[in-house]
Write a structure and sequence with these properties.
Blueprint: H1 5-18, E1 26-28, H2 36-48, E2 51-53, H3 62-70, E3 75-78, H4 80-88, E4 101-104, H5 111-123, E5 127-132, E6 142-144, H6 146-149, E7 158-159, E8 164-168, E9 182-187, E10 210-219, E11 225-230, E12 234-237, E13 240-243, H7 244-253, E14 258-263, E15 266-272, H8 277-288, E16 295-300, H9 313-319
């Protein structure tokens, strides 16, 4: 994947328009530089002349918090698994007077956790921003302002300044109606030049006008967007189109930590530390109107994540021997 200097500049400028980054700010690195989200934190802070504290410690280490307090950190960024670790440290009860705002991107954080972070921010006079992006768009494409999160913790918000979202139906036509689901398309100066696998590919690169995200989404009457699943996260069983992300979300709302996978022959559900797999299989069969033979439920010890903290479905399939 190839990004231009203009892509990086455009995205950094957009980020500085909606995040309250000041030249007097001091942020701390919590993400690797080779990761688009981590790089965008550096670029946006350099653009306004803010200070960056380079850190090699995990947020669960005492040294991290010693550095945080000594350098009077005013902001930090995190992906879902970082916030899950912070909750175990009781982050929502920490006294961090220097902290002005914090951000979350790099995957979907559970709605209840987003709400808890929004409550913490409001109670401690801080700001919390949820963001959505892809590396093909130089990291960030959407943001949910701090003042909106409490009312819409499941939303990704709206396009960043200078960017635009549209929804396409299965025929590629633009969807204008609120509440109707389609593929989320992004347009903006931060969209990549394309992909290169060989040196000669670099000579053929041209600007890409729009990015097909592969995510299914809808927007509400206010113009805020909600991700409902992945375009390719579908299977078809007995003629029924099954949205794996939708099932996963339903089970998550029931308090189950799980991954939903499968193909057009079987639905596979891996549930962490859940011994009632037989009962869950029966319930799913009834809810989905599927014969129980098309469903397999597994009790697993862990749900693997990628190095960026996103759900690692291929690794889960290996665990299940598929």
């Amino acid at each position: 994947m190839c990004l231009s200097a203009a892509n990086l500049q455009a995205n950094a400028q957009s980020i500085c328009h909606y995040l309250p980054i000041l030249p007097t700010d001091v942020t701390i690195t919590t993400l690797p530089f080779f990761y688009s989200y981590g790089l965008s934190v550096i670029n946006s802070h350099l653009l306004v002349g803010a200070c960056i504290v380079f850190n090699q410690h995990s947020v669960v280490n005492r040294e991290f918090w010693q550095l945080f307090k000594r350098e009077q950190i005013t902001s930090f960024a995190g992906v879902p698994h970082i916030y899950l670790m912070l909750f175990r440290l009781k982050f929502d009860s920490m006294d961090l007077p220097s902290l002005r705002y914090f951000t979350q991107a790099g995957g979907k954080l559970a709605e209840d956790k987003v709400s808890l972070l929004a409550d913490y921010a409001q109670q401690h006079n801080k700001q919390f921003f949820v963001m959505y992006g892809q590396t093909e768009a130089t990291a960030r494409m959407a943001y949910l302002p701090s003042e909106v999160i409490a009312a819409k913790p499941q939303s990704i918000g709206r396009a960043i300044p200078g960017g635009e979202f549209v929804l396409h139906d299965e025929q590629g036509q633009v969807i204008n109606q609120a509440g109707q689901t389609g593929e989320l398309i992004y347009r903006g100066a931060n969209v990549m030049l394309g992909y290169a696998e060989q040196l000669k590919d670099l000579a053929q690169l041209i600007s890409v006008e729009e990015l097909k995200t592969g995510d299914l989404a809808y927007r509400d009457d206010d113009g805020d967007y909600f991700i409902s699943g992945r375009l390719k996260r579908f299977i078809k069983l007995f003629g029924l189109r099954i949205n794996l992300d939708e099932i996963e979300n339903i089970l998550t709302q029931q308090g189950l930590a799980c991954y939903c996978l499968g193909d057009d022959s079987k639905l596979l559900v891996a549930v962490k530390n859940h011994n009632q797999t037989a009962d869950l299989k029966i319930n799913l069969s009834r809810q989905l109107h599927l014969h129980h033979s098309a469903i397999e439920v597994f009790n697993v010890d862990a749900l693997p994540l990628t190095t960026n903290g996103k759900k690692d479905y291929p690794a889960m399939l290996q665990v299940l021997g598929r």
